[in-house]
Amino acid sequence: MKPNDQRAPVPRRKDDDHTREAAAERREFIEARSGARLTHVGAYSFDPAVTRGNIENFIGAAQVPIGLAGPLRIRGEHIRDEDVYVPLATAEGTLIASYNRGMRILTEAGGVTTTIVERYMQRAPVFHFDSARGARDFARWVDANLDPIRAAAEATSSVAKLSHIERYAVGPMLHLRFNFETGDAAGQNMSGKAADAACRWIADNHPGGARYTLSGAMDTDKKHSQLNVLHSRGARVVAEARLPSELLKARVGVEAEALFRARLNSFAGSVMAGSANNGMHAANALAALFIATGQDAANVAESHAAMTYVRLEEGGAAYYWSITLPALIVATFGGGTGLPTQGECLDILGCRGKGKVGRFIEICAATVLAGEVSLAGAVVAGDWVDSHERLGRNR
Length: 395
Prior knowledge:
Blueprint: H1 20-34, E1 66-75, E2 80-89, H2 95-108, E3 112-123, E4 126-128, H3 132-144, H4 146-154, E5 161-170, E6 173-181, H5 188-205, E7 211-213, H6 226-231, E8 234-244, H7 245-252, H8 256-273, H9 282-293, H10 300-303, E9 307-313, E10 318-328, H11 340-349, H12 357-381, H13 384-391
Parallel strand pairs: 1-3
Antiparallel strand pairs: 1-2, 3-6, 3-8, 4-6, 4-7, 5-6, 8-10, 9-10
Helix pairs in contact: 2-12, 4-5, 9-12
């Protein structure tokens, strides 16, 4: 597009901007300026009215291919010995095939055991004082007034519950990291609103007042941090399985001992690289699941962090394999989960609506482990590149 002396704003309708007519007007606007033809962008099946609260300046939909992998047997606390089929939205060839293979291996080995350790969402305001002693004394005051602070925060929501507050002192500042339980919602906005109310109460009631910034960056919203690895953000969940060496040999062509040796090598490489994940590719499963089910895709930045732990058992005849996700941020209610396509994918999983987030967390973790098993096997067996050549080259 050529520069224009006058700014040409995107067309908007003040009365009702989420209509087919408004979307068509915007497509015509950008087609005239870019030369693009938006035939497929404009070919969507839902009423634009359902996107109110999810998007502004709506023009259409991105149609990402969705594939189905499974069955995957999960033995968790919200899913008890059940075979699950998993929709994955991706444009990467071989991804569905690889996850499908990993799911078959895990299911034939008896399934994946999943454990949700804890789940919190944070907002982390920073309070400013004239000296370090002022910050230290303030921390003591917060401890003494935790009950009314909690009451102020929880008054903003019927769902949010303040679990605990972490404290981090830096010079004349004190960072407070509020940890909230947020029900079936991911909870970033919920936590922000609750923390804001708590800070206002603190400012009104602390002797001499209190100066603060609502986010001091220790909530690490949409970015990875070591703090998340240690203290959790979203769900901390573990998926684990025991795989017979004979099964691994039959399905991926390598025995448990070879996989274990390879893990020692890749662990050293991960440490040297300073990786946020010493496993294979958790982001692949999570991105595909997030897009299919209406999650905030940017949360993959935090959610993909993981710690793999393995060991040989039964004299090398079995391979214990676990992966821990310390910052899995997902929802089954609110946000994009209510959109039509995404809701249908949640229905496939039995995860749409309230009371289902634990089930969805377990499915996410188990799916990640399936991808780890398949890709690790492909790399060690030497058929990783060949698989992409056969299945993943869209020329």
